[in-house]
């Protein structure tokens, strides 16, 4: 099998059920998810390299998320999404919520905005968070003009929250404090 097909040389590509421009909103959406997936893989590698058992478990979760991001891209690749063919489910989003709650319980209360940083692992998870938010925005743009499965945007929204909680948990697990935005007031209170 050759890696190049020459079918995209004229600025067109195929989605399931149509031929579109390479800058089509659908291609932008699943392309941004693919970019996110690359950063998630990098973050997982750094977590494993840390040697921490708790962070290795987080890395395993990231690998599962990589598969789910492929599912998101698959769902978005249909020009006309059919419910019976979609892979992203509410259960996937619910699992992210459980992990968010678990990480939030394992970190110090947050009072101020947090800057990306602290440890290398946390910094990369913040990169995942911001690219995930961009992917979510691309899906919202797509949904405004074309058929788009609802669960993908819900999953991506929760995924960015997961990356924030995981970034804080990575710092806590490594004994590295979060970097607080020092010019900001105390704006958060931990929910009980």
Automatic annotation (TrEMBL):
SUPFAM superfamilies associated with the record: Cobalamin adenosyltransferase-like
EC nos: 2.5.1.17
EC top class named in words: transferase
A GO term for molecular function: corrinoid adenosyltransferase activity
Catalytic activity, reaction form: 2 cob(II)alamin + reduced [electron-transfer flavoprotein] + 2 ATP = 2 adenosylcob(III)alamin + 2 triphosphate + oxidized [electron-transfer flavoprotein] + 3 H(+); 2 cob(II)yrinate a,c diamide + reduced [electron-transfer flavoprotein] + 2 ATP = 2 adenosylcob(III)yrinate a,c-diamide + 2 triphosphate + oxidized [electron-transfer flavoprotein] + 3 H(+)
Keyword annotations of the record: ATP-binding, Cobalamin biosynthesis, Nucleotide-binding, Transferase
Domain of life assignment: Bacteria
Involved pathway(s): Cofactor biosynthesis; adenosylcobalamin biosynthesis; adenosylcobalamin from cob(II)yrinate a,c-diamide: step 2/7
InterPro entries documented for this protein: CblAdoTrfase-like, CblAdoTrfase-like_sf, PduO-typ
Chain ranges of the Cobalamin adenosyltransferase-like domain: 3-169
Coiled coil: none
PANTHER family: CORRINOID ADENOSYLTRANSFERASE (PTHR12213), CORRINOID ADENOSYLTRANSFERASE MMAB (PTHR12213:SF0)
Membership in a protein family: Belongs to the Cob(I)alamin adenosyltransferase family.
Protein name: Corrinoid adenosyltransferase
């Amino acid at each position: 099998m050759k890696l190049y097909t020459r079918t995209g040389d004229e600025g067109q590509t195929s989605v399931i059920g149509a031929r579109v421009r390479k800058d089509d909103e659908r291609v932008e959406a699943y392309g941004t998810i693919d970019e996110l997936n690359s950063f998630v893989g990098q973050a997982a590698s750094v977590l494993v390299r840390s040697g921490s058992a708790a962070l290795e478990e987080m890395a395993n979760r990231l690998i599962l998320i990589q598969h789910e991001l492929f599912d998101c891209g698959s769902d978005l690749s249909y020009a006309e999404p059919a419910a019976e063919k979609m892979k992203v489910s509410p259960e996937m989003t619910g699992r992210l919520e459980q992990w968010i709650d678990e990480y939030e319980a394992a970190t110090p209360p947050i009072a101020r905005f947090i800057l990306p940083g602290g440890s290398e692992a946390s910094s990369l998870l913040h990169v995942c968070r911001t690219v995930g938010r961009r992917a979510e925005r691309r899906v919202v743009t797509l949904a405004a003009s074309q058929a788009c499965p609802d669960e993908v945007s819900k999953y991506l929204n929760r995924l960015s929250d997961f990356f924030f909680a995981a970034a804080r948990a990575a710092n806590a697990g490594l004994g590295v404090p979060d970097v607080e935005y020092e010019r900001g007031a105390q704006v958060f209170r931990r929910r009980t």
